[in-house]
Amino acid sequence: MEDRSAKYRAFYAQLICAAAKTTNPRIEQAFRTVRREPFAGPGPWSISVGGHPYVVTPDDDPAFLYQNTLLALEPARGLNIGMPGAHAYWLSGCGVKEGETVIQIGAGSGYYTAILAELTGPSGRVHAYEIDERLAALARENLKDIPHVELEDRSGIASDLPAADVIYVCAGAAQPATQWLDALRPGGRLVFPLAPEGMLGGMLMITRPEEGAVWPAKFLSRAQFIGCAGLQDADAGRRLSEAFAKGWESVQSLRRGGAADETCWFAGEGWWLSTAAALVPTVPIKPHADLTQA
Q: Per its UniProt entry, what is the enzyme's top EC class, as one word (predicted)?
């Protein structure tokens, strides 16, 4: 069965990179290396494409796991291992390097934590946070043999987060947590879904500059996630829906503090997104409009 799994993973990694429109060999190698079986749990499995209903696989053949689909962890809650092609695209956008320190918010059963660990390599570090006790227990078991991963069963919105080069958030929020911004090292990238629960928002990448209150920012794609506890706001969700309806590709920077001007795309409490460029350009990755659910 292991030989079959290796064959499936080789095909799957190529399929995922094609969906993500990336030729990054490190992304392909990470998806080729990490087995999905432990993170999916025992089959049969419930899988879905985008917003379509779940379909239950006829048996536990691992071939069903190696597709570009959502894989349910808790179908009743709509809680999934996210769309691999979408995550490959976002990971390509934030450019995780060997030796970097990564914080992951919303580890689930640990699949994308393991992918991040492959990208950082053993000289790096992955700090993963999962607030759901059951999922955290699964993730801890699944990740126990990766020494440079630390899993904590608590909220990732905290003042004691380690300094990080990349913060990768797998839960929708109405705003970037101040703690995430403060934990970023200069040059560090925060990638998170600006998408309150139940809303189609966008995966926003923010880069911390060496100094100043104007941070390069851009949406990588549209995105929808289960909500991040503590970062929900119904009014912000309504206003964000209106902002996205008017377009989202023009966002170029995040401003911390100060009065919003005519370039404001959306304003939150103490921050706002602007269509004006920051002094430091964003990573040249084209927005991908058809990546949505994760």
A: transferase
**Predicted pLDDT at 74:** 93
Q: Sign of the CA dihedral 52, 87, 229, 139?
A: positive
Q: What is the pTM of this model?
A: 0.93
Encoded tokens for 277: 């460029």
Rounded CA-CA distance 65/61 in Å is 8
Nearest-angstrom CA–CA distance, 141 and 158: 24
Amino acid identity at 284: P
- Amino acid at site 15: L
Tokens representing 72? Answer: 């349910």
Q: Residue 209 forms beta bridges with which residues?
A: none
CA–CA gap between residue 85 and residue 134 (Å, rounded): 26
Q: Indicate the average pLDDT of the chain.
A: 92
Residue 175 in tokens: 């705003």
Neighbours of 159 (CB within 10 A): 8
What is the helix (H) or strand (E) element at residue 186, kind and residue range?
Answer: strand 184-194
Taking only the tens place, the pLDDT of each residue in 43-52 is 999 999 877 8
Beta-strand relationship, 184-194 and 214-223:
unpaired
